[in-house]
Amino acid sequence: MSFNDDAVQLTNDDASSCKLSAVQRGYWKDSYISFFYENPERKSPEISIGYYTRVHSVRYLLKEFIKKTEGNCQIVNLGAGYDTTYWNLKDDSLTPKSFIEVDFPAVTMKKCRIIKEQMDLLEKLQSEEDDIQLSRTEIHSNDYHLVSADIRELKQLEAKLQSCRIDTNLPTVFITECVLVYLDMEYSDRLLKWISTKFPTSAFINYEQVNMEDRFGEVMIVNLKRRNTELRGVEACQSVDTQINRFKRNGWKNVECLEMTNVYRNLSTSEKQRLEKLERFDEKDLLDQLLEHYCLMWANSDSNSVNLSDVTITDFT
């Protein structure tokens, strides 16, 4: 593990802080994020709206995937950090056959400890069908698995997914949120091609930077470098087209990509009004600038005719 890897892991704390700050101010409900982070610094409204748009759109796609497959599916969150989606889906009675989270051992160790200490988290993993297996860095239950792996090492990743009893023939959706951009292109290409080859009926949700060649993108890169964090995969983040091309050249048949500006515009008028009234919000230009530098990818390959192409990223109401 390199020093850069350590810095990248700290971005998980940043994301958790931003999410908790937004949840505390009513942008969305999440009963579990406070277990993973405490006393966040208050964030600006445009940051909170940006995180709302990210969380809402990713979970919308996951819910549609679960409904389309009638729950007979798997979810794999790569670089999951302190994500709480599993518990929130449980509350909505939308549980896949298996939910797998993968991250560096230092991150999964902290998440394991928190889950063990919080009954509100642990009890939702319990099942009459299976005992929960707990270690310092990993958890295995009937439908939830938390494992440690470096996703750049495909043999290691495959072995860990096999330990979760993953079924490559079952419809599977993979999630990466601001993860691929930290990988050298050879690693992200290899990962995307491996998944598209190994899982014939699969989907991929990717949230990360886009339009990174302008001044805003340059400043973001400089600021991250000051924190010893390098966007090694920024080449794929130059435009919507470069994002789409990366997936297509690695075997994904149906690929959509939207700037988050357009994702936000596709929310209902009433929801946008609710969000913009939660706090004093005068910086619409700043929100637009932020959202246009992130994008949402939805790619799928549907060999078993589950009609995944019916799921689109143009409607998040």
Automatic annotation (TrEMBL):
Top-rank taxon: Eukaryota
List of residues binding S-adenosyl-L-methionine: 54, 79, 150-151, 177
Enzyme class label: transferase
Keywords associated with the record: Methyltransferase, S-adenosyl-L-methionine, Transferase
EC number: 2.1.1.233
Alphabetical list of Pfam families matching this protein: LCM (PF04072)
Reaction(s) the record says it catalyses: [phosphatase 2A protein]-C-terminal L-leucine + S-adenosyl-L-methionine = [phosphatase 2A protein]-C-terminal L-leucine methyl ester + S-adenosyl-L-homocysteine
GO molecular function, one term: protein C-terminal leucine carboxyl O-methyltransferase activity
Signal peptide from the UniProt entry: none
Known function: Methylates the carboxyl group of the C-terminal leucine residue of protein phosphatase 2A catalytic subunits to form alpha-leucine ester residues.
Family designation: Belongs to the methyltransferase superfamily. LCMT family.
PANTHER family in UniProt: LEUCINE CARBOXYL METHYLTRANSFERASE, LEUCINE CARBOXYL METHYLTRANSFERASE 1
Official protein name in the record: Leucine carboxyl methyltransferase 1
